[in-house]
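Extended Data, record F-box domain-containing protein
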Amino acid sequence: MEDKADRLSELPEHLIDHILLLLSIKDAVKTSMLSRKWRYRWTTLPELVFDDLRTPTSSDAQSSNSVLGKIISDVLLIHTGPLRKFVISHKKFHADSDISRWCYYLSRVSLKELVLNFSVSPWCKIPSSLFSCQELVCLNLCSCSINLPTTFGGFKHLKRMELSSCLVSQDGLERLILSCPLLENMMLKNVDRQISPLHISAPKLRHLGLYGTVNLKDVSFGANHLTSGVISFSVDINEDGVAHVNQSYSSFINFFSQLPLIARLSVGRYLLKPRQSSRQGNADAGYGFWERHRSPCPSLQLRVAAIFGILGTRLELGLIRFVLENSPFLKKIFTAGPSPAPSTSQLLKDLLQIERASPCAQVVHLDAKDTIGDKLGQTFLSLHND
């Protein structure tokens, strides 16, 4: 028996660390009994993840909140050494006052990746100490209230940022983006409706996802090198009739005219929906807009595009025609919607007759089940990888 314990003790330290990272916090603590070398090894874990899978709690919300809060506090109290990743993603948890103490600790350990995903109301108020985590490379906040301190000097190493259902002012969001000079990947999902207009100044930004309430006509860019975008809004762009339709589509064109290097584009399922009332008239008006903007000089740099949630309307046909006729480098355009619908089938037939600027451009129709909910962006980005 002693020989077996010695074998565990003789395992290389990097292998022990790898094994511990595969375990939940609860199981990692239990490894203390394996041998003397393992006894306190879990207290030096470089990654701490508290989520529904690794830290399950009771069905009672109040009890669950108290238990999980104590677990996180106890683990951080005992933890020693560097910590590169910290995750709280629990649908029944709200951090309350504990978050200030945790963020203060995290600001002192050279943290690289931080995820605070709270699914319950009210918004979790982010303490100022979080903005002292100067080594952050990835930041993911959900259902948080963000108020940048006046002394905030920026996240100089941040490359990826995701903000979902967060409460933040227009000035605060613009200043946050501007203060991340290395930012390459950003997703804004259901940000505050009061943020209008929004100026995005991020010269190294390559990938942008906009979901929810941001209005295209209110978004402008500084110098940028964006190469891919995922756009999905839950609003009607034809809300006031024909005249407003043209203005909205013009905003769509103007938005992407600011992105000369865009090579991958995904348009979400609500962006091109006509208003429920007088649907046919508005849809035809939208189609007419795309017809009037057919250019004899292809200028788009798109390599791959995707339109999700299509219903087979002429409005959608107009946009797809516009892309096909003005994208000389296009390889594929993906479409997805309720299948098989007669209108969708007719749309696909019509697309076969459209002249294409790129001789190798393909139209590929996807099963709608592969593009449900939050999988939309991930599905699109995985479809093409140059």
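Summary. Residues 1-45 form one domain.
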